[in-house]
TrEMBL record:
The entry's keywords: Membrane, Transmembrane, Transmembrane helix
Protein name: Uncharacterized protein
Residues annotated as transmembrane: 6-27, 48-68, 74-99, 111-138
Taxonomic placement: Bacteria, Bacillati, Actinomycetota, Actinomycetes, Micrococcales
Length: 139
């Protein structure tokens, strides 16, 4: 059973998915030519949009089961909040690194993407090991 804190975060994440919907509308405006964007921007905007949605849903799935993990303290915090943090950092890296008029390549804010990758990896490994340990202990 998710903790009250996890349930609150799940509610926040569900509401955050509404912002992903508005991002989808923005993408339809780009592909219809109503918002100017070059090929790099289009591909990064699509990637940012997709990563935001997938990582928010993955966050909800992890929070629904993380209370069964054999984790506590920092490790439980990382497993619980790491994917939601990555759901902010990775799309931000995609979107912010190609802002401007006709960029030829991503700017320095691409580091947000790689920071998100690092946090995501650490959170998934921690959650996975903790859930396996929790499952084995419950046998």
């Amino acid at each position: 059973m998710p903790s009250p804190n996890d349930l609150t975060l799940i509610g926040i994440l569900l509401l955050a998915l509404v912002t992903v919907e508005s991002g989808g509308y923005f993408l339809t405006r780009i592909v219809r030519g109503r918002v100017p964007a070059n090929a790099l921007q289009v591909s990064f905007f699509r990637a940012g949009h997709a990563h935001a949605a997938v990582l928010l849903v993955l966050s909800i799935a992890i929070l629904a089961v993380i209370s069964y993990a054999a984790l506590d303290g920092f490790w439980l915090w990382l497993a619980s909040i790491g994917v939601p943090i990555a759901a902010i950092l990775m799309p931000a890296g995609f979107f912010l690194s190609v802002l401007g008029k006709d960029p030829e390549r991503p700017n320095r804010l691409i580091w947000l993407l790689w920071a998100g990758v690092a946090v995501l990896t650490a959170a998934l490994i921690t959650a996975g090991i903790g859930l396996i340990a929790g499952g084995v202990a419950a046998l």
